[in-house]
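Lab notebook, bench 4. We co-purified these components, and the gel suggests they stay together. Before we commit to crystallization screens, I want a quick structural picture of the whole thing.
Request: model the full complex, all chains together.
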Amino acid sequence: MMPFAIVILRTDALIFLLTGCIVAAALYMRRQEHLRSAWRKVAENRIGMTALTVLAAFVGIGLLDSLHYRPLLSPAEGNKNAIYSVEVWSALDTLAANLKQHTEKTYSAPFAIYLYAREATEEPDGIQTRGFPRLKYGGAHLSDPQQRWHDIAHRAVEATLLAAIGWLAVGLAVVGWIAWRSGITWREAIRRVWRGESQVAWRAVLLTLGALALLAAPALGLSSYYHVFGTDKVGNDVFYLSLKSIRTALIIGTLTTLTMLPFAVILGILAGYLGGWVDDVIQYVYTTLNSIPAVLLIAAAVLMMQVLIDGHPRWFATAAERADARLLALCLILGVTSWTGLCRLVRAETLKLRELEYVEAARAFGVSKRRIMARHLLPNLMHIVLISLVIDFSGLVLSEAVLSYVGIGVDPNTISFGTMINAARMELAREPVVWWSLTAAFTFMFTLVLMANLLSDAVRDAFDPRLLARARAPGEGARP
Amino acid sequence: MISYLIRRGLYAIPILIGVNLITFILFFVVSSPDDMARMQLGTKYVTQQAIDSWKAERGYDKPLLYNNAAAGLNKITDTIFYQKSVKLFLLELGRSDDGRDIAHEVSIRMGPSLAIAVPVFVVGLLITITFALTLVFFRASYLDLWGVILCVAMMSISSLFYIIGGQYLMSKLWHLVPISGYAGGLDAIKFLILPVLIGVISGIGSSTRWYRTIFLEEINRDYVRTARAKGLSETTVLFRHVLKNALIPILTGVVVVIPLLFLGSLLTESFFGIPGLGSYTIDAIRAQDFAVVRAMVFIGSVLYIVGLLLTDISYTMADPRVRLQ
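Here is the predicted assembly.
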């Protein structure tokens, strides 16, 4: 009997497909000299490598959160059949089970040990008093509330020390690898990394890792004993919600581009290479789609999707599956509204390429049109695809939050930055102010988007600095 | 030029027909009027009778494309397609779910929308172009580097946070302006200051960076070197020569959005309780008022096409070499 049943949600499958594609693309690019040199430029870029390191951490959390399963329920007496829970867990939930299950009654401030709201409690001698009750989990291990800050400092230092050891180990591994690769002494390798003279900007990577460890280690170490970012209205740990939001943001940011990619590239090449009526039809289609303001088209499509999903409750076995279908549908809808920009770019680039001599030579040799498009044009357009994947990411993450606020975003039960902000936005009017949910959502979202923006700058500089500078005005694209 | 405009106007017709078809398919084919009724009335325990009366009230009880029961020309006109989609061309927008005339509602709500959108647009344009030129003036210095970093940081903040933060600081902590609301006439100013300010600030990051790239591309051209060689000061070169020559890419990005200003901003208007078209749309989305959303989609695409036309005309004004034929 399996201790769990593996659940592969649709978005999980696509995320792993995307990961596979990226690995395949990386292997392909290793063999292409011009692409490799472009990546080398990214690797030399300190800001780019910093961003890449932070994003890798986010992606790691997102991937962990994409391994879904349904745990086995303890079987009743005499029941031989395995019964799995209807609740879908992810690997991240298992690792952060403490966070997931430590729910309080309502709000509590970061590191608080008392509830935010007053409550009537009955003393053992029968007298009723109104006061702030102790939290069920936050600081529950403390016998004396006075010791709180002492306890926090103690645990934070402990966690930081552990992280420092881990960081040193990673640093030594990097230095050792450089020494072995370039056949130099360890001393020399350390000197190169320290001075920032290594080919890959390792110093930036290590410093970023250090900063991340310095922030993450105390938070993680304390999270089992306190609510590091407080709790929200229904008592969920805000730190847990922030971690869970990452997957939603990553999915919206990447799958949207992935789903529209085939359309945009194939139609763009067809329009650019074949010309004539094919070009006219494709241009007509994207001008029409483009002429509907993006928000309105998204709103109309999402409303209709809601009608469709609500009308067919039998399609989905669990609530998680339904929320997942809605997330995927949102990606598709955002994809439909945002493929036009990429299609136009691909078409313009194809128009340029088809006049080049190597394509003419291929035509003269009698290579078929289909083969010219697939073998001679497509590989030379891949850098546009890559750049637009990176550039669209941050805009899509931002628009998720806005759409969820408007009510046409993800399912209200899906944890995302949008739903977090939406739930927290009235809290500033409370007295005392409930600031922590918004702050947590802001911190995580800002870091993610900022790093994505920085990385996209580095990638664009390395591959084609002129390409998109003019092609996209602010406010164009998916951003409502 | 006139014949060009007429040709472009005719070219807009197939696009509008396409938009109409898309909305028709989205609203009536992907999910039937029955589904919509069920969603509006609550999915469970709803009788067919209730659905039918809901449909009849809104005129959704007709056949989609072809009405066999009607006579003569009515076979075509007495259908959902004609009544709900084709009539949009005649600017008959229909009625919203609460029975009000949408066209009337739109004409009233245009004013408040413009009262925010126009100042945001004008002030934002002036400020961002000035910033961008300043950055270009100090190019390759630390001021430029940190300016760009600041821009990237500012464009990484969700517009929701600008609004929430602005409302919290200005209205709740410092009590400078009312937190939301709207009034007619001159009283409107105190309600408009904060949304306009936030609208301008939230747009600075991405726009400044975009203009900076445009100006940087221009600054390496030969005419700039000539102007410098003539002994013109760097400020004159930037503001007189570079700015003028960079107008075409700027106009490409800017003129298109001018007609769309009518639609207002969804977020700003709903947060600040301003009765414009943006909050109208958002309310319609939340109340699932399909007729209003359909009308707004149509108006939006008409305005976009007008914007494209205006862009072409603006080219001829900015650059005498451009002739429309």
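The longest helix of chain A spans residues 238-274. Worth comparing against the SEC data before the next meeting. Confidence is low (pLDDT under 50) at residues 469-480 of chain A.
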